[in-house]
Amino acid sequence: MTFEIVKPGLATTVQDLGRPGYFHLGIPEGGAMDRLALRAANLLVGNDEGAAGLEAVFMGPEIRFGADMSVAITGAELPVLLDGDTRETWTTFDVKAGQTLSFGFLKEGARIYIAFSGGIDTPLALGSRATYAIGALGGFEGRPLAAGDKLPVGQGAIVAEGRTVPDALRRGPGKPADLRVLPGLYWHRLTEKSQNAFFDDDWKVAPEADRMGYRFRGGQPMEFVDRPQPFGAGSDPSNIVDGCYSYGSIQVPGGLEPIVLHRDAVSGGGYFTLGAIISADMDLIGQLQPNSAVKFRRVNMEQALAARAERKKTLVQIRQVLG
Amino acid sequence: MTEIQSPLPGTFYQKPSPEEPPFKSEGDAVTLGDVIGLVEVMKTFIQVQAEADGIFVKYVAEDASPIMAGDVLAEMK
């Protein structure tokens, strides 16, 4: 079973839940930017939650099916068309061999996930099918898809049409998007004025934002507490002696534009990190368009863990609905 | 009148580079597939192409302005 890419869209890649365990070697976890959306898409078509599907950003691909299968599209709101007829997002539908899937203009969010019953069956690379394009690893030949690519799909059963994730369980970013932050190791490097400004200022997603990092602009330049720079840290006060970065950590090169490291991020370097976006809000970042408004909200560890538990509860509810 | 919409969000440019004139001016003939502007997003410039033949009327979106998917960029007839 296969499907063929007729038009690839802007950057469409094979993604699953990623390849944890190699970040210390410089290979990022990778995988879907909105993991809950990918899990939901897979559940809708009867796959394991971690099966590989497609992630498409801002623009949908055009796909021609080589076999009958069940399909579901979650994440962003992008009008779905099967041979020109409308289909609902977050809802399972059948496709027949020879039919074509295409998309209209993006309405809300940034990334869609397309799941196929049986899952995309490209070879595993370090235990995952996630595409890490900068490292030419995983997915389909380690790269975004191009017109004419034929992707293999595993053996899966056709599931009932019309299975759907209720609205209440489809969480997208608000306007502005509230992103919760736990201050971290180098928080003390900022002056109190800059610490407060970070949370008070209105930020916007910069157009450079991608799978490696989401950059924000619009807030005030940051001021640092004076110190003699340690040996090896360089002269810029936003620099540190090289250290490890975490998924979700927020670095601010030159004290100007915060960058949140996302699924395909580098694992270390010499920028101070003021804290991290809590895990519960990382999926939301994957749904932010360029120029969308963002507020950073301060939380403590207890609140971050409560938010994580809440997020897990949503997943359990989706499993129950589709179980 | 035909509206040319942006296929994706980003920053719209009427010109191929800051020193050059816009891709099209009022009254220019437009052929299917002609580039009428660029949208920059994720460090990539994507060409916006005309989907029909006609005559260029005007740009609707300003040069170097932020746009959303579906925004009208230009009009032709």
Short summary:
The complex is a heterodimer of chains A (323) and B (77). With 323 residues, chain A is an alpha+beta fold. Chain A contains 4 helices and 20 strands.
Radius of gyration of chain A: 20 Å
Sheet with the most strands, sense and barrel status of chain A:
7 strands, mixed, barrel
Helix content of chain B: under 10%
Q: Give helix and strand order of chain B, one letter per element, not per position.
A: EEEEEEEE
Give me the count of strands of chain A: 20
Q: Strand order of the main beta sheet of chain B, please?
A: 1-8-6-3
Order of helices and strands of chain A: EEHEEEEEEEEEEHEEEEEEEHEH
By CATH, the topology of chain B is OB fold (Dihydrolipoamide Acetyltransferase, E2P)
Query: How many structural domains can be distinguished in the coordinates of chain B?
Result: 1
Cα-to-Cα separation, first versus last residue of chain B: 4 Å
Shape of chain B: globular
Largest sheet of chain B: 4 strands, antiparallel
**Uncertain runs of chain A:** none
With strands numbered from the N-terminus, the spatial order across the biggest sheet of chain A is: 12-19-16-17-14-13-20
Q: Which class best fits the helix and strand makeup of chain A?
A: alpha+beta
Total domain count of chain A: 2
Number of strands of chain B: 8
- Unreliable runs of chain B, pLDDT <50, ≥5 residues? none
